[in-house]
């Protein structure tokens, strides 16, 4: 345990697959009660960053800590402290929303009663009539809400999100953003990987731009020093064109 770091801490992290350098001196620190969005083109290393924090991929160099714990040394320890929403949420189709939450919470060693589960489903925006329906007929947004409710109930200090608003309609995206604001007020450190600059601008305190496995830019997305969205969008588009050329 290193203790003195922010809940999410990466310093000079490097990682390569064969001779392909995927993370190249990445440094990122996310405090409790703040949301950082990580943007970048395809293959920039965003999901790999999450994998390193979760202990699924191992950094070759640099420092990685989740709540002061090195994921490579104690992957179970970090995963107990992280709620992770992958891009395609894996839930059980033949179970209802409440049953899914009940089962997943029991699996994570943090069982909750029905009242707590339905309260979290409500907070996540899932309507009461869907609570006891099987997931087979659920839309992507509804599934996302079940997964978010489970993440909320786990009350962990770190939340990692991989493209949480991809495939959501504007209403569901707005609901999701409102929910994330609540999560932040509970003191959770949130890292959100996304391609959605507008959504990032709505919910994040900071936006980091990843290119070639390192942070090339970082902007404040909240408060008086907030960036100019149009200027940033133009800069981001130029970056994408340059990469595609
Ligand atoms: N297990 C692996 N083995 C080999 N190469 C990998 C592996 N995982 C990722 N990569 C490569 O690492 C690079 C970064 O991948 P990563 O998934 O982190 O990018 P990303 O920024 O999340 O991209 P996207 O926006 O497309 O999801 C890519 O070139 C990818 O092909």
From TrEMBL:
Signal peptide: none annotated. Pfam families: ABC_tran. GO terms for molecular function: ATP binding. The keyword Transcription regulation does not apply. Keywords: ATP-binding, Nucleotide-binding, Transport. Residues 8-237 form the ABC transporter domain. This is ABC transporter ATP-binding protein. It comes from Sphingomonas corticis.
């Amino acid at each position: 345990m290193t203790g003195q770091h922010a809940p999410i801490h990466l310093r000079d992290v490097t990682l390569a697959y064969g001779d392909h350098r995927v993370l190249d001196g990445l440094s990122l620190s996310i405090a409790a009660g703040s949301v950082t969005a990580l943007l970048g083109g395809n293959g920039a290393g965003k999901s790999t960053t999450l994998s390193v924090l979760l202990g699924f991929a191992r950094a070759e160099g640099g420092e990685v800590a989740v709540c002061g714990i090195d994921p490579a040394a104690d992957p179970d320890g970090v995963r107990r402290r992280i709620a992770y929403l992958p891009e395609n949420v894996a839930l059980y189709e033949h179970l209802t929303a409440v049953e899914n939450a009940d089962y997943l919470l029991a699996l994570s060693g943090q069982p909750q009663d029905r009242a707590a589960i339905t309260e979290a489903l409500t907070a996540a925006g899932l309507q009461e009539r869907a609570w006891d329906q099987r997931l087979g007929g659920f839309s992507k947004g509804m599934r996302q809400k079940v997964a978010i409710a489970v993440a909320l109930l786990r009350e962990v200090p770190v939340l990692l999100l991989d493209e949480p608003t991809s495939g959501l309609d504007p209403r569901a995206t707005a609901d999701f953003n409102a929910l994330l604001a609540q999560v932040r007020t509970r003191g959770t450190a949130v890292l959100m990987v996304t391609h959605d600059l507008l959504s990032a601008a709505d919910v994040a305190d900071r936006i980091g731009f990843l290119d070639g496995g390192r942070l090339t830019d970082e902007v404040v997305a909240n408060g008086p020093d907030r960036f100019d969205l149009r200027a940033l969008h133009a800069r981001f588009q130029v970056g994408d064109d340059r990469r595609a050329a």
